[in-house]
Amino acid sequence: MSVLSGKYGLIVGVANKRSIAWAIAQAAAAAGARLAVTYQGERLEENVRELSETLSNPLVLPLDVTDDAQIASVFAAIEKEFGGLDFVVHGAAYAPREELSAPFVQTSREGFRMSLDISAYSLVALARGALPLMERRGGGSLLTLTYLGSERVFHNYNVMGVAKAALEACVRYLAADLGPKNIRVNAISAGPIKTLAAAGIAGFSSILQHYRDRAPLRRTVDTAEVADAAMFLLSDAGRAVTAEVLMVDAGYHATGM
Ligand SMILES: NC(=O)c1ccc[n+]([C@@H]2O[C@H](COP(=O)([O-])OP(=O)(O)OC[C@H]3O[C@@H](n4cnc5c(N)ncnc54)[C@H](O)[C@@H]3O)[C@@H](O)[C@H]2O)c1
Description:
By secondary structure, the protein is α/β, with parallel strands linked by helices.
């Protein structure tokens, strides 16, 4: 399947081989896309460079999404190398560890600010940077990753749930803003998957078990399944879909008692 053949993509949020963004990068590369992949800080550079060796001719760039100068450098490098951009995968999220175990009412001002900046505002900043490059290609697709904790209360998800609610609202506002330029903006709301980010959530294993017990498919999901859904939203197959939050969670979101 070469549904992304001839397309250029930017993948933000690869930390290691378990990252959801890495599964999407692999699927996009297999579907024919040429990719720019970013890493957050020197700590992750080696990991990301090593993983990217398996891609064909990738651009590997540093990007901390809180740094406007780095965001500008990433798009300048993409403009120089690719001349345009067809899709962006936004898989960056962060909340200070203490905010993911203390009672929500104890959320600090700084913890709240950081979580919303990194996990929600960064989508707006990346969309702004991608806009001129996507316009040159006659449109594009932006995709972010969210979780049901945006709408419902999950123990210890705390300020990350608030950040995901903001992120999903950003998806809708960006979709309305950029739709006339044929740029689509969507999110995938993934079921829980054991990744580095998930390891920061106290009691994560019990959330996984709850999904196995309660989700209609009686199981959790894996990163390859999220990547398959991402291929739909990133490719022309999803050309009429925007402002959407697609649930890839084995049906858990529909359950009540
Ligand atoms: N794992 C799950 O259960 C799950 C479920 C639903 C949604 N998600 C979302 O999927 C996305 C990817 O997370 P993951 O589970 O693959 O974990 P992960 O730890 O592999 O990925 C999170 C990424 O965010 C990046 N990041 C954090 N702060 C950053 C910053 N300042 N600048 C640039 N990058 C930064 C990290 O470097 C890392 O690559 C996140 O948005 C997460 O909330 C995860």
